[in-house]
Amino acid sequence: MFPAFRFLPGKEELGAESQKPHLYSTTLFIPEGPCSHTVQKLKLQDVSCITTKTQKVISERIIDNYNKRQQPRFRLDPPGQAISTATQELLRLAEASPGGVPTLDPVNDLQLKGVDVVEASLRVIALQDVLKEFNCIHCRSLSRCFLRVQERMTLQDELDKLLFLVSDQSLSLLLEYHQRVKVLQALGYVDKSGAVQLKGRVASQISSHKLLLTKLLFKSTLSPAVLPGVTPPPLAPQTPAVFSSAPV
Questions:
Q1: d(C-alpha 212, C-alpha 189), whole Å
Q2: Over the stretch 136-149, which tens digit does the pLDDT of each residue have?
Q3: Where are the transmembrane segments (predicted)?
Q4: 181: how many CB neighbours lie within 10 A of its CB?
Q5: How many alpha carbons fall within 13 Å on the CB side of residue 189?
Q6: Which one of 129, 150, 171, 183 is most buried, counting C-beta atoms within 10 A?
Q7: pLDDT on residue 30
Q8: Please, which residues have CB within 8 angstroms of residue 190's CB and are 6 or more apart in sequence?
Q9: Which run of H or of E encompasses 42?
């Protein structure tokens, strides 16, 4: 996060400022009367572009004076010299470029030639062109349609999260998954490279108790047991059948 200094509209300008003619607009805000200011912490996703204009300000003094006037004791104090200078410079910049300040191109000006950056830059330009012709904000049922789209996107996000949780990519990040793989390797169901062995293929065909049953099968545990020191009982001798022929 980094601090940012910006204008706040006066009370008489709130109504006019809220009625924007278009979704995508580079027009700068120019206060017509007294306006206040604020210092806010912004994230990277809050920044849409970088302008070609630079201004030299004393940021430490601006932040210190702003934080000081947030206390009840100094709330009525006038802004410091650093804040007044920054406010005047921003006002001059807005009056000099009411239609918007020129911005830097991330590919040509900043020399960011990565594939992801180039594709994202082209997508931003395409979306800006689409927004310029986006007139649905004047629809009377905009609020109702917006809620429907919002609900659909929320459900889609939840579905994507659930699909990720059951995917192989998600399982590979779980400690329990790696522990189970080590157990299968120790039992010989998979090798060190993760390839399924014969025992593993047999186990995958057994619906229940697959590991235990496979172990019993390959260890011949289910065959007749012969305990040491115990002689199995002899089999009963079978008497051969004798057939005699009597005179008729």
A1: 12
A2: 777 888 888 889 99
A3: none
A4: 15
A5: 18
A6: 171
A7: 80
A8: 181, 184, 196, 197, 200
A9: strand 36-42
